[in-house]
Amino acid sequence: MELDNLKEFTSSPEVRVRLLSYGIEKIYSEGEVILNEDTYVRAIPLVITGNVKVMQTDQNGREILLYYIKSGESCIMSFMAGLHQGKSKVKAVADEQTELLLIPMEKVSLLIKEYPEWLDYLFRLYHKRFEELLEVVNAVAFRKMDERLLSFIKMKCRHMDSDTLSITHEQLANELGTVRVVVSRLLKRMEEEGMVKLGRNKISLM
User: Of 123, 141, 159, which residue constitutes the final position of a domain?
Assistant: First the structure.
């Protein structure tokens, strides 16, 4: 890995050298679990390429999407759990082939002490994730499922830089914390209203 791959994480060449020397490179395939719930966090992931989706599972096994981690970002919830030697409250899964640089927690603590700008990066990331989690809470509490569904499709398309989303109704239901039959019914209505076009495991915005 080149130092330039770490520019999005810090402007300091010295910090990039440290990250590269401390980190462990690993590539995950689409759908591969990076971190499970209720497991101890030994390292925080820096996403070099690809995307990671972070979810939480309820007692009935249903999952809800919390946020995405894209290139140049990390999982602040993993950082908080690891910093306090606790277990993860979330599940992280590669949304596509994803390259990570895994920084062991003891090295993360050293970076915080030695380089204030690294702590600033983590605080800015924490602020961004907090706002995203508030959006999830507001959507679940105050918005109808059809609004949540369309908003999610648009967000996912922006994230993938495409007007067409390759995803099954089951996957959509899982990420929104609902059931497939509800998603299928709402998508059919959206298609009739000219908002989307449905294909085999594909949804296109109109």
Answer: 141
Q: Strand 51-57 vs strand 63-70: parallel, antiparallel, or unpaired?
A: antiparallel
Q: 154 and 62 share a domain?
A: no
Identify the H or E element spanning 92: strand 91-94
CA distance 56 to 204: 27
pLDDT over threshold 90, residue 29: yes
DSSP state of 46: E
The DSSP 8-state label assigned to residue 75 in this structure reads -
User: If you search the block for the tokens 């330039």, which residue do you land on?
Assistant: 4
User: Are residues 104 and 48 part of one domain?
Assistant: yes
User: What range defines the domain where residue 93 resides?
Assistant: 3-141
Judge if 91 and 161 occupy the same domain.
no
Summarised one tens digit per residue, pLDDT across range 57-81 is 877 777 788 888 888 898 888 888 8
